[in-house]
Write a structure and sequence with these properties.
Oligomer: heterodimer
Distance between the termini of chain A: 30 Å
CATH topology of the largest domain in chain B: Rossmann fold
Shape of chain A: globular
Helix content of chain A: over 70%
Radius of gyration of chain A: 21 Å
Number of domains of chain B: 2
CATH superfamily of the largest domain in chain B: Response regulator
Strand content of chain A: under 5%
Number of strands of chain A: 0
Largest interface: A-B, 46 and 45 residues
Number of strands of chain B: 12
Number of helices of chain A: 13
Shape of chain B: elongated
Radius of gyration of chain B: 22 Å
Order of helices and strands of chain B: HEHEHEHEEHEHEHEHEHEHHEEH
CATH class of the largest domain in chain B: Alpha Beta
Helix content of chain B: 40-55%
Number of helices of chain B: 12
Strand order of the largest sheet of chain B: 2-1-3-4-5-11
């Protein structure tokens, strides 16, 4: 191979790596871990990784739902308030069951079902507004976002709802490496979602609708039914995130998911999914969410005010969008 | 056709929803006076507890209460329009809990100019000269008492060296600032070997407070104590300590006697809780306004321009009766 051919080969490989957002995100994550560890070696510990994954678990749940929604060409602003309302509704029921002397495990299972059920209701309302009344997703989910946030405060009076099973918090203690039992279940759920999006017909329909809904309809896809499934899925995952927050805090707090929709959208965008729909991978969202939570813990560990997190996240979003545009131009 | 039916269904649902919300508004019975309370974040359990006190005293004094604030946002931008709407209803008296001392001054003065006597509660406007009274819990005193409780819990000795962290909600909320100042000043004077090694803000979210404390517990293996400056931070810190199995090993001093937090005193999670008495603040505000409106000379003579209602430190040694007495009832 001549020197010129070698240079061309290297250039092509570098371009290939730069064009792969997942590889770049992984590099960014490694660099962050290296930087935070350099500034404070305690960062590279099981305990800190446990903290990061505890923060990551609820964010990735709502970010996965948001990924499906955004790839289908929509947006779900209600995920944050669904987290809050699912958590408090489940907390009320668990408080009631505990005072009625039901077993802790039974109470926790009922709480889980209630949280998921609340998510299904919010998702179904979104689906109804979007597919039956043809309200655009931004407005439809803005409505449920406001109603959900308001109702959680009305139900609770603003304070946390406790009095549930005493073993709730202990469930989120890491048991296998930095992962707790609910954390492991969430990782499995994320892997199933990844398989659904990248390998199954469900995912192909989602991409097709996001790319061109008219063409998808012409190809025989029941677009409305598929969109309804996606918004209900997003609601279920937000409900699960609300339940996870309950386990972590031992109380249902109406503010638990506050701003969660923006965190989810940030994870999705940093992960390389275009807000225009039709493209992107769930692996990007997984890394995007991991980067967001690594920044949070890292800044605390190295003594930088947590408010800087917003600045760092803004830079990451800008970089991710810029990269998407560069790749889009390169393709053209 | 189907689309039209859907739109009609949505319109009907929305109208029904609005009507049912409207039906929830309390009917005003004929009473002697109407007194309006205008606060920042209505949903804060502190204000919920204040409302319990206000309602009880209103029943005694035959007063109707207007209770208004933003559901959850503590900000002058949301409070000023609400205060203006309340003043348009021409209440006989106003209890203002300003979210900002400068921004709410004009609203405060507007009410007084309209002949409505004003009492400031909890927080205050800059110029209190025309205000009937300013009634508050003492935040600086609460911070100082928290420092005393912490020093006692960690068995402070002048030969020792101690690390503590402080969880706050925001850098500017006057209550947070007052408590932190009181805490810091007391440590500087009485406990110089205690070092505040870190502080962070939770933006009213227990999950954020939990993240902050979880990371501190890893970062500072020799941490001796935590001062959680309000109810939100108390909830987040308590869950983090429980998850890390450090209950009883690290002193946790919380603020605000939310029912859940009081339960955690009994379980040993909180070493101590600094409790305010918002119900007493509301009761006194109504008493002062009714005396003013009645032009009751004896009652007016009892009005103090500044009233500071002392805080109480609750701990495992507090009597069950006192724990019940100071728990915020919503």
């Amino acid at each position: 191979m001549s020197k010129g051919e070698l240079m061309d080969s290297v250039k092509t490989r570098v371009k290939g790596i730069l064009g792969n957002q997942q590889v770049l995100l992984f590099v960014v994550l490694i660099l962050m871990v290296a930087f935070f560890t350099w500034r404070n070696p305690i960062f590279f510990s099981n305990a800190v990784f446990g903290n990061i994954l505890s923060d990551w678990a609820p964010i990735i749940l709502i970010a996965v739902g948001e990924s499906f929604v955004i790839i289908s060409g929509g947006i779900d602003l209600s995920v944050g308030s669904t987290v809050g309302i699912a958590g408090v509704v489940a907390a009320f029921e668990m408080e009631h069951l505990t005072t009625s002397h039901h077993s802790q495990n039974f109470t926790l299972i009922v709480g889980l079902l209630i949280a998921v059920g609340t998510g299904i209701i919010v998702g179904a309302i979104n689906a109804f507004l979007i597919t039956k009344t043809h309200v655009v997703p931004f407005i439809a989910t803005l409505v449920t976002m406001g109603a959900g946030a308001g109702l959680s405060i009305v139900f609770t009076g603003g304070g946390p709802v406790g009095g549930g099973p005493e073993n709730a918090i202990s469930m989120t203690v890491p048991t296998i490496g930095p992962l707790s039992k609910p954390g492991i279940i969430i990782v499995i759920l994320v892997l199933i979602a990844w398989a659904f999006l990248s390998k199954a017909r469900f995912g192909r329909y989602t991409y097709a609708i996001g790319s061109n809904s008219f063409a998808a309809r012409a190809a025989g896809i029941n677009v409305n039914r598929h969109l309804a499934k996606i918004y209900i899925l997003s609601g279920i995952l937000a409900g699960l995130a609300g339940y996870y927050y309950y386990l972590r805090l031992g109380v249902g707090a109406p503010t638990s998911g506050q701003g969660g929709e923006l965190q989810a959208i940030a994870a999705v965008v940093i992960g390389g999914i275009a807000l225009t729909g039709g493209t992107g991978k769930l692996s990007g969202t997984i890394l995007g969410a991991l980067i967001l939570t690594t920044v949070t813990s890292g800044l605390i560990i190295i003594n930088v005010a947590a408010n800087w997190k917003q600045v760092v996240v803004a830079i990451l979003i800008a970089a991710a969008v810029l990269l998407q545009q560069l790749r889009s131009r390169a393709r053209k | 056709m189907a689309k039209r039916r859907s739109i009609a269904a949505v319109a009907l649902t929305a109208t029904a929803a609005m009507l049912s919300v409207g039906m929830m508004a309390p009917a005003h019975a004929a009473t002697k006076y109407t007194i309006a309370f205008v606060m920042g974040a209505e949903a804060d359990p502190f204000f919920k507890a204040m409302k319990v006190g206000a309602d009880a005293e209103a029943a005694v004094k035959n007063v109707t209460i207007i209770w208004q604030g933003d559901p959850s946002v503590y900000s002058p931008a949301t409070q000023i329009p609400i205060a203006d709407q309340v003043l348009a209803q021409k209440p006989n008296g106003l209890v203002l809990i300003p979210t900002d001392p400068t921004a709410l001054q004009a609203t405060n003065d507007k009410a007084i100019k309209a002949g409505i006597p004003v009492v400031n509660v909890d927080t205050h406007v800059n110029d209190l000269s025309k205000v009937t009274s300013f009634i508050t819990g003492d935040n600086a005193d609460g911070g100082a008492k928290a420092a005393d409780a912490l020093a006692k819990a960690i068995k402070y000795k002048s030969s020792g060296s101690y690390q503590v962290v402080v969880g706050l909600t925001s850098a500017t909320a006057t209550t947070n600032v007052g408590r932190l100042d009181g805490f810091t000043a007391r440590i500087k004077v009485r406990y110089p070997h205690i070092k505040i090694v870190d502080k962070a803000y939770s933006q009213s979210q227990p999950s954020v407070a939990n993240t902050n404390v979880s990371n501190w517990l890893t970062k500072y293996p020799k941490l001796n104590g935590i001062f959680a400056i309000d109810g939100t931070n108390a909830a987040g810190a308590a869950s983090a300590l429980q998850a890390k199995g450090l209950v009883g090993k690290i002193a946790l001093i919380g603020y605000d006697a939310y029912p859940g937090n009081v339960d955690l005193i009994k379980k040993g999670v909180f070493t101590a809780l600094v409790a305010q008495n918002p119900a007493a603040e509301a009761k006194l505000a109504i008493d002062y306004l009714v005396a003013t409106l009645d032009k009751d000379a004896a009652g007016i003579a009892k009005i103090k321009k500044n009233v500071v209602i002392p805080n109480v430190v609750l701990s495992a040694s507090t009597s069950a009766a006192d724990l019940v007495k100071y728990t915020y009832v919503a």
